[in-house]
């Protein structure tokens, strides 16, 4: 993989899990990286941390402007990783309107807000790439994930539409579709189970590989799609799910 020397990147939700692993990998490969997160208190050098709520347009605009200025590229941003997201469980009967608006606001509209603020800076780059964190939930038909699946289906559609809109500007737009990734998010879900260890073992047993995907493995796929190595790829979804989609399996 080519390195990111001289490139400037912005990662939303980069204080934890997949976003954190991605921010660290891009920085290790030579990028200057800014992290936007609700809670950036754990973000350490060389990463730059900014507090931002992707549901608040003013907060997003201010954080993107500050980050781009501090990254020092005279207004140029090369890479945007739209990764901030939240989960929701249950069937269509289990989530009320407020929950629907909240999850769609973070997972879908939040992505649009950050992208809107970042696009003028991405247009100045010779290697502009956007990578959205989607999910196998976008197309798998997962049980007990109606709202979350709908939000990630929208992320997939948004990725394709953005790829079409910006291809002539030299801005590539792709997404990754992770399976079940061992992050604090999944830790919280398992922690809520009656027997977390048994629940984890059952979850691992349902994976084709017999284990969960690591955040570093998703970061590797994101880095590939963000790097000039994938320069002819746009409008694509890359599964990082231990074979779930490729082997036509479905976690029921
Ligand atoms: P995580 O909870 O470990 O990290 C999410 C980060 O996003 C946190 O740092 C959080 O503070 C931040 N965030 C949440 N709401 C925000 C907001 N309104 N504004 C700014 N930042 C906000 O979760 P993760 O597992 O690393 O998930 C990251 C992304 O990966 C999400 O989009 C999620 O849907 C997706 N994903 C996760 C999995 C999985 O199994 N963990 C699978 C598929 C897709």
TrEMBL record:
InterPro entries: KR_dom, NAD(P)-bd_dom_sf, Sc_DH/Rdtase_CS, SDR_DHRS6-like, SDR_fam. Residues 7-184 form the Ketoreductase domain. GO terms for molecular function: oxidoreductase activity. Keywords: Oxidoreductase. Gene3D superfamilies: NAD(P)-binding Rossmann-like Domain. Belongs to the short-chain dehydrogenases/reductases (SDR) family. This is SDR family oxidoreductase. It comes from Streptomyces acidicola.
């Amino acid at each position: 993989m080519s390195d990111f020397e001289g490139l400037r990147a912005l990662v939303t939700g980069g204080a934890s899990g997949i976003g954190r692993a991605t921010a660290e990998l891009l920085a290790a490969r030579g990028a200057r990286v800014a992290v936007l997160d609700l809670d950036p208190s754990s973000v350490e050098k060389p990463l730059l941390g900014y507090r931002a709520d992707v549901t608040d347009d003013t907060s997003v605009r201010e954080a993107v402007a500050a980050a781009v200025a501090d990254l020092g590229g005279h207004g140029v941003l090369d890479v945007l990783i739209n990764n901030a997201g939240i989960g929701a469980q249950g069937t269509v009967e289990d989530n009320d309107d407020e929950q629907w608006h909240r999850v769609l606001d973070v997972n879908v509209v939040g992505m649009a807000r950050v992208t809107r603020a970042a696009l003028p800076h991405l247009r100045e780059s010779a290697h502009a790439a956007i990578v959205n964190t989607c999910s196998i939930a976008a197309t798998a038909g997962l049980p007990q994930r109606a709202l979350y699946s709908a939000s990630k289906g929208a992320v997939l559609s948004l990725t394709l539409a953005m790829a079409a809109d910006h291809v002539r500007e030299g801005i590539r737009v792709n997404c990754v579709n992770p399976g079940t990734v061992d992050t604090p998010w999944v830790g919280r879900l398992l922690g809520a189970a009656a027997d977390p260890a048994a629940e984890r073992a059952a979850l691992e047993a349902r994976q084709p590989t017999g284990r969960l995907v690591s955040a570093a493995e998703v970061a590797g796929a994101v880095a590939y799609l963000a790097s000039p190595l994938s320069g002819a790829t746009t409008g694509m979804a890359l599964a990082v799910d231990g074979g779930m989609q490729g082997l036509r399996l479905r976690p029921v």
